[in-house]
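ok trying again, last paste got cut off:
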Amino acid sequence: MKGETYYSVRMRASQNGRHEDGGKHISGGEKLTPFDGLKHTVNALLEKGLSHSRGKPDFMQIQFERVNEPIRTIQPLLIETNEADSAEKGQELAKELISQAGVPRDMIEKAFREIAEYSRVRGAVLFDIHSGRRIDGRKDKGVRVSRMDWPETGFEEWAAGCGMPPNPRMKEALAVAAKVSGHPAVVAELCWSDDPDYITGYVAAGELGYQRITKMKEYGDESGCRIFFVDGLIDMKNCIDYLEKQPVLIQSGGEG
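nice, full thing came through this time. structure:
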């Protein structure tokens, strides 16, 4: 990586027009790659956008730009799988894990009551654990975590060492979670996909690690959830700038 120029590649796809014009979100993706990997990366994101279970897009945007900032390396989170045989039990377990990460219980309950409202947000919601308010100020756009990736070789070595399948969906989720938990303002992350065929979600935090929960919603449900429980007393501009702009690669032996 040292001395190598990297590029941030981003894709978003929607149906019935652009996201800004009210189109239905279909798929999105983020990758970091050196120049010689650009063609492969663009093709992989194109395939992802065209083959999503949420439907066929009629708008897709793929763009790349050179990364000029120093790239930070972050070590992967510890991973654990928690079995849940119903969405209700899965969400109750998620509440317990978020509490263990340090979020007050009444704030957790308030956030869960507002999940239906947040499900229309395209990015993440920043939820202040002190006031119980959403504080990102991004309305339907939310905060989109960007400029992170996990090089394939490193991910495959990690997966083999953990006895996990080298699943691309898991790699993407773990990369996002590792970056998000790398900022001191983020106390915990709660996420499940808007993919109607994927019902596993997770809670993540620095000390807690990446806690997979096998059932967080019912099959066929297209509503997703991504909430970052944050300490609103810490500079939120710095936090959002980090989430959206700081380039990060996941790497064993990286920063804690």
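cool. The chain has two domains: 6-68, 73-250. The helical segments are 38-50, 87-100, 105-113, 115-118, 152-162, 168-181, 236-245.
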